Amino acid sequence: MLYLLAKDAVELYDWDTSHAKGKEAQSRKMDQSMVKSRLGASWCRGTRLYIYVVDSLDRERLGKAKQEFQEIIKDPFMLNSIILVFANKQDMRGAMSPREVCEGLGLFDLKNRKWHIQGTCALRGDGLYEGLDWLSSTLKDVKAAGFTSVGHSF
Asked: What is the pLDDT of residues 96-151, one digit of tens each?
């Protein structure tokens, strides 16, 4: 699942890679009602990671982004997922810093959750590898520790 916060809308794209052996991963745009119905149907069961992308220029919609972000991560099936937030458009004048995005989404209030925020410029690729490296390392650490869920160890 990947959230994109844009000026006019919060967009959610669902990448299904679970059946992609030898095939390209499939992507589709989802609206909030689709997300809620899937969450209600235990769609997130077993989710190990969640990547959320925020447009750091869009201060006006940060409150809505927080509401939707918190709704998803508080779902019982998401409580043990690792969270990576990309604070995008860091190259633009007036962009919120990763710390401001962190405060705006309520990341500092998360208890017993493993999360990371990474400033990015997606057009140039700045910060993307660093965020994904953190994610990879964190998943390896959890696996090495023998935990099936990350909530137990943090």
From this structure: 999 999 999 999 999 888 999 999 999 999 999 999 999 999 989 988 887 655 44
d(CA 113, CA 151): 6
The residue segments making up the domain with residue 106 are 2-17+25-152
Digit-coded pLDDT (tens) for 41-74:
455 566 788 899 999 999 999 999 999 899 888 8
The model carries a pTM of 0.72
91 is in an annotated binding site: yes
The domain that holds 31 is classified in CATH as 3.40.50.300
Alpha-carbon distance 128 to 132, whole Å? Answer: 6
Task: Consult the annotation and say whether 143 binds a ligand.
Answer: no
- Strand pairing of 26-30 and 49-55? unpaired
Q: Determine if residue 133 is labeled as part of a ligand binding site.
A: no
90 marked among binding-site residues? yes
Number of domains in the chain: 1
